[in-house]
Automatic annotation (TrEMBL):
It comes from candidate division WOR-3 bacterium. This is Aminopeptidase P family protein. It holds the Pfam family Peptidase_M24. The keyword Protease applies. InterPro entries: Creatin/AminoP/Spt16_N, Creatinase/aminopeptidase-like, Creatinase_N, Pept_M24, Peptidase_M24B. Keywords: Aminopeptidase, Hydrolase, Protease. The keyword Hydrolase applies. Residues 151-279 form the Peptidase M24 domain. Residues 13-141 form the Creatinase N-terminal domain.
Amino acid sequence: MCRVIKFEPMKKRIAQLQEQLVRERLDGIIISGLNNIRYLCGYTGSNGMMVVTRRAAVFYTDFRYQEQIKTEVRGCDKKILERDLYSSFPVAELRRMLGGKRTPRLGVEEGNLSLARFRMLRRQLKGFRLIPVRDLVLELRRRKSRSELARMQRAQEITEQAFNRALRLVKPGITEQDLALEIEFYFRRFGEPAFPSIVASGENGAKPHARAGVRRLKKGDAITFDIGCRYQGYCADMTRTVFLGRPDPELRRVYEAVLQAQQEALGAMKAGVPFKSLD
């Protein structure tokens, strides 16, 4: 099924971030996390940086992405830097964006900026106060719009479809790897895998993040699927356990205990309930 989901107005997201800068008493912020950059301007490449002040926003990348950003990046200015984004930081341009303000307070994403890059910035940004900040963009991302919820729902729909297709292939002799490949092939018809697909059978099911391997399924196996599709930047994450043939009685008791715990948690879930109480 082909579904058209409208893109978010990126200028609105950037404006919300600029309002946060005022509340946090910051004159600007350097956005380094690629997921945060994608959220703010739509960029999906592997090298980029955003500088947002209270009145302006600029996205920077290198020459490899000059064609890509023409169609992807929205809501802000976009510029190509000839050298490394951090070792040759556009200091003069930032000063102009800040109107020559003395000792500006500039936020940096402490969870997305390496120590080496932080030191590069500190050497170049003389007269600036670099303020480590956490979750400033994440606070915006926590509240989902209708179009974001639609993307998340579509990612889950694709994940469930892939799982149901894989179930038809579950039989003695097929490998975990074969099933994982079938799942990821289906994901790539509509999006991409959100993470490496886990198909773990038999003793491999005891490993929390097992790699799908060459083990062949056999009767009586418990098979755990931990899979998810990423659709237009939004991810699903689904875990299901199935049995090939009649399960061992002890495995069945464990399965039913986990199922009961899940159902009780779902029954207690409502707005305002702390996650730790559900756990």
